[in-house]
Design brief:
Elements: H1 6-24, H2 29-37, H3 47-53, H4 59-68, E1 83-88, E2 98-102, H5 103-119, E3 127-130, H6 141-150, E4 153-156, H7 162-172, E5 176-179, H8 181-194, E6 203-206, H9 215-224, E7 229-236, E8 240-246, E9 249-255, E10 260-265, E11 279-285, E12 296-302, E13 315-317, E14 322-323, E15 328-330, E16 333-335, H10 337-344, E17 350-360, E18 363-372, H11 379-393, E19 399-401, E20 417-419
Helix pairs in contact: 5-6, 7-8, 8-9, 10-11
Amino acid sequence: MRLPDRAAITAHQETYLRALLVAIDGRNPFYTAKLRQAGLTARACDRATFLERFPFTTKTDLVADQLASPPFGSNLTFPHERYVRMCQTSGSTGMPLRWLDTSESWSWMLDNWAHFFQAAEVGPGDRVFAAFSFGPFLGFWTAFEAAARMGCLVIPGGGLSTRARLEAMRDTSATVLCCTPTYAIRLGEAALEERITVGTVRRVFLGGEPGGSIPATRARLERLWPTAAIIDHHGMTEVGPVSWQYVDQPRALYVLESAYLAEIVDQRTLRAVEPGQIGELVLTNLGRLGSPIIRYRTGDLVRSMVGPTPDPNLALDGGILGRVDDMVIVRGINVYPSAIEAVVRRYPDIVEYRVDLTFERGMTELALAIEPVAAPGTPQLAECLAAELRTALSLRIPVSVVPAGTLPRFEMKSQRWVRH
């Protein structure tokens, strides 16, 4: 696969950005209003002007628009009759958003996934097992259909128990698994418990939540899936499939810049951060014309990799580092879910965990409940974890042990943080 250089990427973005703005100007009510708000017209807006003057889009903007124009909002470039697919966000951080796609926009997302598969050396002859429930969220729908279009045998795993999925993977000699990091761990542990060997899997594609780029979680997955390379990716229902990981480069997620114009901005000033500094990822999709997202503040905290990389696309060092809305401040310390997971996953004896947040007199406190491999667990396990959390986060976090089978298991996005 011949790689473009930075000049070619920028020129491509210039062309496709102009085509996007021309397509929406006067047709898409939501973004036409933003163009006029900035005093811009599509044909007179080049890439530099766009980055300087086009307004940002937030999740709050989209929710307000769908409440004002139910059920789909006004971010539609074409009449309703042109749209053939509907997806919906999980609603984990507020009201779920409904998202419509034309056949052309849907095909654009399949092209993105085809790029990810090709980069991971997946193609005709592979057997792709999708271990998700095929609900209304975008999830792995696009991965599933892209694999079929590429000539892979695709195997749906919706509606099956964990054991039934493992048996189906074994019986069909699946070579690729698509699921969340949490569920990949659950499948791997269940395979050991049930003594089901699935030795044909050579790629595990992860998405839906952080984990695949957290070293401790990745190490655990590599132990559970010893024949497979672990591949992280990220995307959002309202944005589409965005980034992928190379088999031999687990440190970074690469943004597909032929499909997205990406920015990393300071959360307060909304100006671009210096390379290597942490900021919020802002995305403009360049080919989803039917329901575009333009200068969208994703809420994902990232930093670009400094120095030369094997691929000229934007490399996100460490993947998604956290989310703006997930951070909690405990006794003056910023704590992200990924930081807790990075410590917990170092302990193979812990099969599941829950973080309890309490709020009293304006103070936030954390407590951790862990479920060991075998009940009732040992006090030493809790003590060791508490000590390591104190070292990593400079916080004293109480850790308790609960009996085996107590904590819930998650197939899609995990909900381990519980607010009281």
